[in-house]
Amino acid sequence: MDDGLKCPACGSEHAYHDGTLWICPECAHEWNPEAAAGDAAAPAEGVRDAFGNPLADGDSVSVIKDLKVKGSSLVVKGGTKVKNIRLTDAADGHNIACKIDGIGAMNLKSEFVKKA
Asked: Mind telling me which InterPro entries this protein's record contains (predicted)?
């Protein structure tokens, strides 16, 4: 057993090897140290815009194409700037909640915006 290997979740020294994974009996966290070492430089998963830039609450974004507003004849034109977005965990794919001037509160998909 590797004496220097500790659980990355809780820091426990009682982790044990099981197949390809290490398991912590105290917090039940499972991890692969080889994969974790390769992913150290990779950014954490999160909401990204159409060009792969990470988004955060409070960011400003621009719409990249004309979007029809469902249930209305309104259209959000490409190039519209949206300030102070909020990221949500919507199941329908609309993961940005925002307020657009002239339209009001609505949800957008991150694949149709770019970070401003």
From this structure: YjdM, YjdM_C, YjdM_N
Cβ neighbour number for residue 55 with a 10 Å cutoff:
20
pTM: 0.60
C-alpha span between 44 and 30 (Å, rounded): 18
- Domain holding 96, by residue range, is 60-115
Question: Would you list the DSSP string of 80-91?
Answer: -EE-S-EE---T
- Residue in 89, 82, 86 with CA at minimum distance from that of residue 115: 82
Q: How many domains, the chain?
A: 2
The span from the CA of 111 to the CA of 44, in Å, is 18
* Average pLDDT of the segment spanning 60-72: 94
Q: Is there a domain that residue 48 lies in?
A: no
Q: According to the model, what pLDDT value does residue 62 have?
A: 96
* Residue 53 within a domain: no
